[in-house]
Request: fold
Amino acid sequence: MSSTITTNQSFFTQLREQIEYPGSGVLSKVLLKDKACQYTLFCLAANTEISEHTVTRNATINVIAGKGFLNLSGENIVLEPGVLVFMPANTPHALQAQENLSFLLILSEKVIEE
Reply:
């Protein structure tokens, strides 16, 4: 995978070429980050689970390849290519990869509404 880029310059990559599935578990690579967002490619081996957790930033999942399930606040969502999921900050979620699964995770700053 390419190096992490932290910049205000333009960035381009072919996500499918960046995919590397581990023999087991999770491989993640931060592709790009700035002060507002972080773009991370996640590659999960088949039958990998990520236990329930929360993050302090808003999160968006964009599935690239494979199949799995996301439990988002008790709701089960099928993850397959083309699925886009938005999770507000601090939303409990867990993940299971049925097959090798890859997705782009975008973390963005939580906007405090007045």
